[in-house]
Amino acid sequence: ARTYIVTGSASGIGATTAALLRDRGERVIGIDLHGADVEADLSTPEGRVDAAAAATELAGGTIDAIIACAGISAPIPATISVNYFGVVELLQALLPALKKSDAPRAAVVSSMASLQTNSPEMVEAALAGDETTAREIAQKLADQGPRAGYLVYPSSKRALSRWVRRQSISADWAGNGIPLNAVAPGTVLTPMTADLLSTPEGAKMADDAVPMPLNYHQSPESIAYLLLWLTSVENTHLAGQVIYDDGGADATLRGDDI
Ligand code: NAI
């Protein structure tokens, strides 16, 4: 069996991914705030360090794959901390154990929302590793009201997708033979979207932002199966891709613009 680290394992896409892996006989070490093998808060630097140390110890020093699903969508500074720094700092902290695998792999969950209007300043601050500034920008946007506050989530995911593009070809990842990729879902039926989709107005907002001509809203399984393949031994050359697994939302919105 391969040893997988899955963040956000207590709910939604992470929980479904962990369950499918266990069904296949793989070993899963889940990380989440509560209800996981490793309970840690990925919104803080200390939480990330503690999570990486505990997961590495539970794994016995070698990790075969990391699947980072933990994320939040609220218009608050914690969103850039969890969605960007909680992924990249954790991946970097787990890299020594991942390098020991015969077939190391990593995949993260970005979002279709990464293509939406965002704050370039926040994206740049995140990519520069400046969490304090990124959080200050998020707070300023939130203070300006819901419209500006909404930019926080797409900014966190744009930064994450761009980090994956850059790092995937670096000495750390490609240089160590580790495929690193992102999946960008459309609207997935999980606790994250349940409130929004519970009213006709909310559903219309979601569908205007993320039109899904192929099969409409998607199950967490639709994302989990792709994450499983990206982190399997079968994936030897797919690297640095942001795969829009989104019912055709990207093709609808961007069309020829690629
Ligand atoms: P969810 O809310 O069902 O699960 C997210 C999990 O992350 C929860 O178990 C939560 O406790 C954990 N988490 C949140 N903050 C954390 C922290 N500080 N430390 C540790 N764990 C923390 O959400 P869902 O839908 O499964 O989302 C998974 C990923 O997919 C997220 O990154 C989300 O942004 C992304 N996504 C979701 C979409 C959707 O429509 N549901 C669409 C596109 C992307």
TrEMBL record:
Keyword DNA damage: no
Signal peptide, first to last residue: none
Annotated protein name in UniProt: SDR family oxidoreductase
SUPFAM superfamilies, sorted: NAD(P)-binding Rossmann-fold domains (SSF51735)
GO molecular function: oxidoreductase activity
Protein family membership: Belongs to the short-chain dehydrogenases/reductases (SDR) family.
Keyword line: Oxidoreductase
Coiled-coil regions, chain positions: none
Keyword Oxidoreductase: yes
